[in-house]
Amino acid sequence: MNGTGADGAAYTLGEVVEVVERLWPPSTAQSWDAVGLVTGDLAQPVRRVHLAVDPTLAVVAEAVEAGADLLLTHHPLLLRGIHSVATASAKGETVTRAVVGDLALYCAHTSADVAEPGVCDALARACGVLDPQPLEPWTEREPLVLGRVGELASPVTLRAFVEALAAALPATVGGLRVSGDPDAEVRRVAVVGGSGDDRFEVVRRSGADVYVTADLRHHPVLEEREQTRGGRPFLVDAGHWASESVWLEQAERQLRAELGDRVETHVSRLRTEPWTFVVGANAACDDAALDT
């Protein structure tokens, strides 16, 4: 496909969905996930596509105001079941605003995580990884080829690596959290966009010097750092929204390559992470006892 349908008219939503599902097949999504079309008429024309990580009320309002016909997001809107789309709830209001605004909504979540290229490839590139490879092979037991691993062009200190990554990712309130020796040299990098503290064992087997992911919880991280005796892989929590937002421009390029320039595209610049400020953050803490 490039540009228009066979008769020269704008693509229908159904035709665009076919492209979307070829790029990020729903069959590759996790069984618990909720990917696919949420709102929209398959016969409606699509001339403008809006892309965002989260289908928040603000993002939907932005897309409607921009005249978008389709909002493509990474995160699902209806991951957990609801029984009403009344505007009394935020999710209900989101659905209502999309429908009233003639805005179709499609969510590509874990289907985009595991795609090649997908979310993890985009994060790997932001890290400076050359030729990223699957972190673990596809098997019937583990159908998600989740994560990427590869080498930097040359070794750098952990501090320099994280500073470069912070410059490559969109700014967030919390910044990047790091566990490891800032002066240690690193070269082999593993990544999982979004939540990834269930992949520590796989990352260790990959021989990675540093692991970049998000949503790192206290107990899994503490146990991992104890397991490695404070050694490799060092850990970087890049933030959920930031680690996945780098996929949007890649997804935009893929869509334009398939649909041509008769379909306009726009990547939302709204920051949809929930945090608004921090207090009392310390740039670096050692293992000394807390001050009293």
TrEMBL record:
<keyword id="KW-0479">Metal-binding</keyword>
<feature type="binding site">
    <location>
        <position position="74"/>
    </location>
    <ligand>
        <name>a divalent metal cation</name>
    </ligand>
</feature>
<feature type="binding site">
    <location>
        <position position="113"/>
    </location>
    <ligand>
        <name>a divalent metal cation</name>
    </ligand>
</feature>
<protein>
    <recommendedName>
        <fullName>GTP cyclohydrolase 1 type 2 homolog</fullName>
    </recommendedName>
</protein>
<comment type="subunit">
    <text>Homohexamer.</text>
</comment>
<comment type="similarity">
    <text>Belongs to the GTP cyclohydrolase I type 2/NIF3 family.</text>
</comment>
<dbReference type="GO" id="GO:0046872">
    <property type="term" value="F:metal ion binding"/>
</dbReference>
<dbReference type="Pfam" id="PF01784">
    <property type="entry name" value="DUF34_NIF3"/>
</dbReference>
<dbReference type="GO" id="GO:0005737">
    <property type="term" value="C:cytoplasm"/>
</dbReference>
<dbReference type="InterPro" id="IPR036069">
    <property type="entry name" value="DUF34/NIF3_sf"/>
</dbReference>
<feature type="binding site">
    <location>
        <position position="75"/>
    </location>
    <ligand>
        <name>a divalent metal cation</name>
    </ligand>
</feature>
<dbReference type="InterPro" id="IPR002678">
    <property type="entry name" value="DUF34/NIF3"/>
</dbReference>
<feature type="binding site">
    <location>
        <position position="240"/>
    </location>
    <ligand>
        <name>a divalent metal cation</name>
    </ligand>
</feature>
<feature type="binding site">
    <location>
        <position position="244"/>
    </location>
    <ligand>
        <name>a divalent metal cation</name>
    </ligand>
</feature>
